[in-house]
Amino acid sequence: MFWRVSTTILVIFLLPLRIVYGQPLVADLSQHLIGVNAGFTGAELLLFGALDSSKGNDVVVVIRGPVSDRLVRKKSRVGFVWANTKEVRFLEVPSFYYVATSKPMAQIASRKVLDSLQIGFSGLVLKQETSVFADRKGYRDGLIRNLRTDKLYHEGQGTIKIMKDKLFRVGVTFPSNVPTGTFSVTTYLFDQGRVVNVQVTPLEVSKVGMEARLYEFAHKYSALYGIGAIIVALLSGWLAGAIFRKI
Amino acid sequence: MQIYLPIAELSVNVFLFLSMGAGVGFLSGLFGVGGGFLMTPLLIFTGISPAVAVGTEANQIVASSVSGALAHWRRGNVDFKMGVVLIIGGFVGSSVGVLLFGFFRNLGQVDLVIKLCYVVFLGVIGLVMFVESIGTMRRNGKRGGKPRKLHQHIWLHGLPFKMRFRRSKLYISALLPLGIGIIVGILAALMGVGGGFIMIPAMIYLLGMPTSVVIGTSLFQIIFVTANVTFLQAWHHQTVDIVLALLLLIGGVVGAQIGTRASTMLQGEQLRTLLAVIVIAVCGKLVFDLVSVPTDLFSVAVGVR
Fold it and tell me: At what angle do helices B80-107 and B211-232 cross, to 10 degrees?
């Protein structure tokens, strides 16, 4: 009897201990694969999870897409026309960048801490290949501005909703021109300006179905694809003519 | 209703692109031009990258030109011999053009080059056509002009390799249509056009072909040259989006048939005046775009090594 009571009491105490020591933060995505098919117009995902508010109160989510080089070109007046006159190459630029926080970033942690984790546009490390003596900031701002217009870069402060100090959720929008590949989804739990826990969730974006096969075919068997495109065009032209003759 | 384009990598409104195809296809049948000089800028305005616009448009032009050329052929309005000579020149020119396209793309100047080419050629041709066709219309309006010769001989006709082109009633040097074909081919590859807007004035004024045969023969040449551009752009640059091409094509072939029928209702001079007006208008819009201050001085492109 004594042992039964004490075991029960021990288990009841150990359960919350498990949550406290094992998992101050849990995060998940509504789907782990975005399949780009013929009717794809973008995707709306939900990132959600649970937190232990005794460990930390502030949640930050960062999603990064696969990296590639980007060329940023600046126009200036040449005679009468505007033309691209200068070019700067940026290395390892994320093709997709999304940040969401539960509070304004300044209230969560210092700029130094956020920059070291590359949270927020100002903290993003974008390496320039050439050293441009003038207007270095202009090129970087131009890059981020263009990607924001394409809806590929997004920074939302205070968009993560925390309910009853336990659950959190935020919507993530992916535009129709989202790049394909492996994305890293990182959720941070902050407590008084320091990172207490980190969770990484997988996300994959890939073309599926006939669209994927067309894309692959166009790249792997380019010459055949070209001939195929011509044949389709010739047949349609002839077919349209034949149909119209009957009308 | 939206559809996702696999090569252009974005999703577009189906009905918008179907009607774009139909509108431009109508012009194709009406004037015997591919319509590319309108469609390629339109595609770029709707957010398709210039490279994909040029390659895909070439593909669409193949279809709408087949549709129009067949209709003209059935009426006996195609000079096949002239067409073949033009095609040989066109193959050479378009292959060179695709190489040039890749070269400019790497320099990051492909947008500017395309627009400048359009401005120069459309401007010159539009003005020349406009002035000439207004003049012809005025002359035909007067009573009793002296009987005109079949066509006028210029020194270019006397170059070597003279050939007899029966359907056009011409005996001129083959180097002339060959040269025209080469120039048109380069433009076709660089600008995603059929080249009709160069070829038709060249056929009428430089070669001296009768207007009735000009449209059908030009469509015939365009089919083969744009097929070559489609093939090369797909093979070298993978910039042909077959889903987009199909969308434009379905509207385009329908429009071309209607346009061909409409072309028999208007006189040659009226057609040329109309075309000249459209050409000048497109040229004006391009000049405006080039000269006005851009909304963002910075633009971003993917950097491939």
Answer: 40
* Closest C-alpha among A131, A130, A110, A128 to residue A119: A110
pTM, whole model, 2 decimals?
A: 0.73
- Residue linked to tokens 């895909």: B56
* pLDDT at residue B144, rounded to an integer: 45
Q: Residues B78, B217: contact at Cβ < 8 Å?
A: yes
| CB neighbour class for A50 (10 Å; exposed up to 12, middle 13-18, buried from 19) | middle
pLDDT of residue A79: 84
Q: What is the pLDDT of residues B218-262, one digit of tens each?
A: 888 989 999 999 999 888 888 888 889 988 988 887 787 788 788
The β-bridge relationship of strands A97-101 and A153-156 is parallel
Closest CA to B258 of B99, B24, B55: B24
First to last CA, chain A: 95
Whether ipTM exceeds 0.85: no
Contacts B302 to A, Cβ<8 Å:
68-71
pLDDT digit string, tens, across residues A84-107? 888 888 888 999 999 999 999 999
CB contact under 8 A, A37 and B60: no
Range with the largest mean pLDDT of A159-173, A230-244, B286-300: A159-173
Q: Do A68 and B4 touch (CB under 8 A)?
A: no
What pLDDT is recorded for position A65? 94
Among A75, A74, A76, A72, smallest CA distance to A88 is for: A72
| Beta bridge mates, B163 | B172
Q: Which residue of A has its CA nearest to B233?
A: A226
CB contact under 8 A, B6 and A215: yes
B290 to A80: CB separation less than 8 angstroms, yes or no: yes
Instruction: Chain A: give the shortest CA distance to residue B52, in Å.
Output: 13
What's the rounded mean pLDDT across residues B149-161?
Answer: 66
Residue A134, H or E segment: none
Q: What is the pLDDT of residue A103?
A: 92
Band (A29; pLDDT cuts 50, 70, 90)? very high
Nearest to A83 among B59, B112, B305 (CB): B112
B144 lies within 8 A of chain A by CB: no
Q: Are B301 and A75 within 8 A, CB to CB?
A: no
Q: If you count residue pairs, one on A and one on B, with CB atoms under 8 Å apart, how many are there?
A: 191
Q: Which residue is closest to A239 within chain B, CA to CA?
A: B67
* Nearest residue to B257 (alpha-carbon basis) of B14, B19, B22, B16: B22
Q: Which residue of B has its CA nearest to A179?
A: B9
